[in-house]
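ok so for the tutorial part 2 we go from a plain amino acid sequence to predicted structure tokens. step 1 is just haveing the sequence, like this:
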Amino acid sequence: MSPSTVCAAQHRPAISAHRLIGNGRSALLLRPDAEIDWWCAPELDSPPVCWSLLDVRGGRAAFRDVRYARCSAEPAGPTARTELATPCGRVEVRDGLIDEGAAGVTLVRLVRAVTPERGVERLAGLDVQHELRLTAFGSDPGPDRWKVEPGGASVALGDRWVSVAGGECDAGQDDTLRTRLAVPADGWTALVIRIGPSGTATAEVDVERLVAALDDADADEAALLSSSRPPSVHRERALDSLRVLRACTYAATGAAVASPTLGLPEAPGHDRQFDYRYCWLRDASLAVAVASLLGRRDDAARYLSFVRSITAERLVPAGPVVDIRGETVPDEHEQPGIAGWAGSTPIRVGNAAKDQVQYDGLGLFAEAVSVHVQTGGRLDADTWRLVRELADGIAAQDSGEPLASHGIWEQRESALFVDGDIGRWLVLDRAIKLGRWLRPWQSRRRWTDVRDAIAARVRAAVGADGLLPQVYGQQPPLPDAAALMAVVFGLLGPDEECARRLVRRTIDALDAYPFLYRYPPDGDDGFAGREGAFLPVSFWAVSAQALTGDFSGSTARLDALCSVLPRLLPEEFDPVEHTALGNVPLVWTHAELARSLYVLDAARRQRRWGRLGLWTWRVARYLNLRLRG
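step 2 — the prediction. this is what the tokens look like for a chain of 629 residues:
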């Protein structure tokens, strides 16, 4: 291997160590030592400005000659705090993003000296060095030469303009801008980095305004969390889900991206790298459900509005993904010249799933509407009309046989995936139940007939040992964690022996305790390498066990997952090496964690008070949430 190849293979920044900062327009990942190694700006799906997460030569923003001392524990939010040790003393760094409207987005890096102990004055004469390195991301345009002026510097980066203010700047002969910040004995100093359209003026430094802006953002976050209604189990994890969901939401439209990152591998050294900076119908629907379950009805209504807008044009079959503006996702293509995390290439931008047929997202949309109503939300006429149209389309499409799709795992080749039937069943079942609530006098015999026929087909596919195959007629049948959806969403009743057998058989086949693979990791799914355990389905296992009466097993699995997983949850996790894999954070993972907490909380109440007690609690919760709205 060449030296450059060895370097690329050894470049493995700890995925699980990051914190996420998001402001509803842009998002960045922050390492424990306050290095920013991933930042797309000025929008969530803009080309990355900082990307050393994927290549040691990539763009980065970092302080020189410092080491990590401590940092804030919250995995995501509008700001983050880091304490760094320098040769001359400790400093606190407070990072945050500010939306500047047409001028772009501003990264604020506040720095102040840390008082070593009570009664000792802050150090005077302390300074820190900051480096901002900009390099071309693959075939994207690289930066021009830095233009240094008194009080700041600026440079063109393709069609964007990067301006820096605060401290003394020096560009040198390379792509790195070095800034010396003199830290006062008391109070903050600031470095301001603004990314905006070409010609954006150099950012101004008004320290008091910047501190106030970050204080306001923190206050808004605290108010949101205090008004939520987390379950009684692992409450902080539920709040983490809200933090991540908010940081991954594009405020202008209400779109929740699957993840703010791209290119992080599911199987290091192989070809499983994808771009998740887009909004999947599945993830957007889960955002509605999670916000509803955790008592954030206003947020749920905002997410629902976006989901309704993108679903109206994607009925049956449905393109599963749009960009953050609700428009078409770019064609998938490879970016050359990027070494990749642990040498994992290719690095793909755009996503080929945009042209696929998937039914899970449609089903989860209907489920989200149902959850929203059950938790006190109002079902407006437009949303109900859309649910009816979805159900009518599914019913009209049915010919008594399963339909080909690309499945919930977005396989490149379509097949008769069983999870496609589960998604279609979910649309019809939730539409029928919502109809009984709103229009009990209207007959929906066609919906009921097709729903029951789909359920019978899924039931008939369950083997005597409980295995529900990935594809109808598959020989030999391949276990797939998507089978757990049949129990989690109620196609199989939780008291049925068939449901219990399915849960036990699926978990036994895919278990890497406390994790679960989505399907056998050594199988052929069109890509190379052995992927890690898939975290969303690991939480499905928690929910499915709780629903089928295995309360102790469900509790033990959840506790084990929460004890080993970082608070910023990735897509996958290596169950042997205990390392995070895939894009981070994954909204889907956080959503399924929140759902499993709610399911387990309900199971715990039923175990204590019986079915009547659980029903009473749910009614009381519904009334409370409805009155609050």
